[in-house]
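Appendix B. One record, verbatim.
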Amino acid sequence: MRIVYLLLAIWGTVHPMYYFISWFQENGWSIMAIVDAWHVNNATSGLVWDLTIAAVALTIWIIFEAFKTKNYLSLIAIPATFCIGVSCGLPLYLYLRERVVYYKDRHTVRV
């Protein structure tokens, strides 16, 4: 499954970024302008909030598990989630989580 997660993380980076970069090239490189575009109607606002709540839940899960298992490398999925998107952050975290080998006490890992 590890390779599937990695491929999904790559796809979750490239595919959305194509649309973001295209939008920025057409409309200028203003972050506030794209945020305004995300809230152009109730459907897009609902999608933005859906993804925001999912990103927060993913972040809490990553932080909790990273400190519980001492798998600190997995914390890089947090900036990936907020700078690229949940479509990158979630599969990246699952990829990094799969590489963990647990010792007998289940709370200590070898990465």
